Amino acid sequence: MIKSKKTFHDCSDKRKDKKLIRTIGSIVLLVTLSFTACGNKANKAADSTDTTVDEISDATAGSIDENGISDSGEADFDTGLSDRISYQCTEEESDDVILPTDRNIKIMFSGNSLLGAPKVDKHFEELVERYQLNVDEVIREVFYGESIQYQLSLIDDDNWDFVKEDYENADVIIFQEYGGFYEQTYENIKELVDNYCKEDVVVYYYTTQYDYHDTYLKKMAEDESIHVLDFGTLYNRLDSSASPTFGYLYQSDGHPNELAGFIAAGYIYTQLYKTDFTDYPYEELPDNIKELVPGGDDSEKQEFYDEMIEMLNRGVLN
């Protein structure tokens, strides 16, 4: 039986001043973007019909247009990391499990609501039990509405000493950022890992549907000590492949739902343990997950689910 350490943080009182600063900064950013957009429209109107999405934050979660879906219902998402993130990319990588396999380990999920709302850690725990993986504790450090930089600011605060303890005890850390929006993500991860983690800790960065061609992603792709789990690309392609049921992986508030969390956990399992996710049939899904699978009756849902799993097992599509 694995131990589960759940740490859910709202931190409303401690964030009031920070929220005010962020709100003022957001207003300035929006005004700047508005002027920039007007200038770009004037320059492009005469000779361009293409639309690109450069940056998407949590504030735009759930907007189909901003997920990059075109009028034809097609989407093309590629972070440029597929040569490193898919276990099928090279034969050498496909045989190489990075995790310690000679002992039980502690895995930490570190992020915010894009991990917490779909319960990615909970579904991963279920897979640990199902496949009897060498994990004896799943640690969850989830700060809703906050960034990795925020956790770094807490780590030497005596009131949050358990955060530091969790980082010190983790054998594997899966980081996820605030909407893929922070330029300092890479530097913050490196500072946390270099100063507060085990020397042999295994570090992953989990992309969401809001991580794109940002500088920090490219830095992590070039850093051999950070392994990118590009679920964001898979997520967007799963969503865009389901025409006309776009948005089936979202909750009403724009966060990923538990079907997305289940698929994410399966994807993490395949990438960490270099295996396929082929022996979890539709019939054995929990009822709440079955309800979220598109389709009318069970036969339609099963067909749709099988297609999702096939796409998952193909990793990041080329």
What can be said about this structure in brief?
The chain is of the alpha/beta class.
Can you describe what's shown?
By secondary structure, this protein is an alpha/beta fold. The protein has a single domain, classed as Rossmann fold (3-Layer(aba) Sandwich). 42% of the residues lie in helices and 11% in strands. It has helices spanning 16-44, 82-85, 91-94, 113-116, 120-131, 148-154, 161-169, 185-196, 215-222, 231-240, 258-273, 287-290, 298-313, and strands at residues 3-9, 105-111, 135-143, 172-175, 202-206, 226-229. α8 (185-196) links the parallel β4 (172-175) and β5.
Explain the layout of strands and helices.
Elements: E1 3-9, H1 16-44, H2 82-85, H3 91-94, E2 105-111, H4 113-116, H5 120-131, E3 135-143, H6 148-154, H7 161-169, E4 172-175, H8 185-196, E5 202-206, H9 215-222, E6 226-229, H10 231-240, H11 258-273, H12 287-290, H13 298-313
Parallel strand pairs: 1-3, 2-3, 2-4, 4-5, 5-6
Helix pairs in contact: 5-11, 11-13
